[in-house]
Specification:
Layout lengths: L10 E11 L6 H7 L3 E4 L4 E6 L4 E6 L3 E7 L2 H17 L7 E13 L6 H7 L4 E3 L7 E5 L4 E5 L4 E6 L2 H17 L7
Antiparallel strand pairs: 1-5, 1-6, 2-3, 3-4, 4-5, 6-10, 7-8, 8-9, 9-10
Length: about 190
């Protein structure tokens, strides 16, 4: 971070999206009739299944592909995915847990200062964009990390990336750029 400011920034992971495959065909109607905490959506061709611990919502397709959302860490996402696989095994499917992958991580972070968005965008023109008529935040894309940072004038950040490590690196990358464009404190 910056040598003048020794405060540690809290990066709070709010959502982790992960996918995995069961390597078998799934009968959605059977899951809907016999499963618990299930919502069947035949018009879309999927079943939504919810777990309470960890708090996860899964979209299940008949091909055996499952997308899990709602976890707050990569470990929690894997645990929830394994629990979903176990629930499907108990319904009588020959499920094999395979191809688990964390697809997206959403995190929020708050800077200890407010940011002047117009200055920030002008200083980082090709990468940053700010359209106040469309969205109240400036968007900063970091290609090599595959991360996107939404910067609000209050100093709040919303960061999306492929994993938790990339999200943390993105915040470390953008902090000095934001520090240059901080608003003067009101007294």
């Amino acid at each position: 971070m910056d040598s003048n400011n020794d405060e540690a920034l809290d990066i709070i992971v709010t959502n982790v999206v992960a996918t995995f495959r069961t390597r078998c065909h799934l009968n959605l109607r059977k899951i809907a009739l016999e499963g618990t905490n299930v919502i069947y959506k035949p018009e879309v061709g999927k079943v939504l299944m919810k777990l309470r611990k960890p708090t996860i919502t899964a979209s299940i397709w008949s091909s055996g592909k499952i997308i899990c959302t709602g976890a707050t860490s990569e470990e929690e996402a894997k645990l929830g995915a394994r629990r979903l696989a176990r629930c499907l095994q108990k319904l009588g499917f020959k499920v094999r847990f395979s191809a688990f992958k964390v697809v997206n991580v959403l995190a929020v972070c708050s800077m200890p200062f407010a940011v002047h968005l117009v200055n920030f965008t002008n200083n980082n023109r090709p990468i940053a964009s700010y359209e106040p008529e469309l969205h109240p935040a400036a968007t900063y894309r970091i290609k090599h990390l595959k991360a996107t940072v939404q910067v609000f004038s209050t100093g709040s950040l919303t960061v999306t990336g492929p994993n938790v490590q990339n999200v943390a690196t993105a915040v470390e990358h953008i902090y000095p750029l934001l520090y240059e464009c901080q608003k003067p404190r009101c007294k």
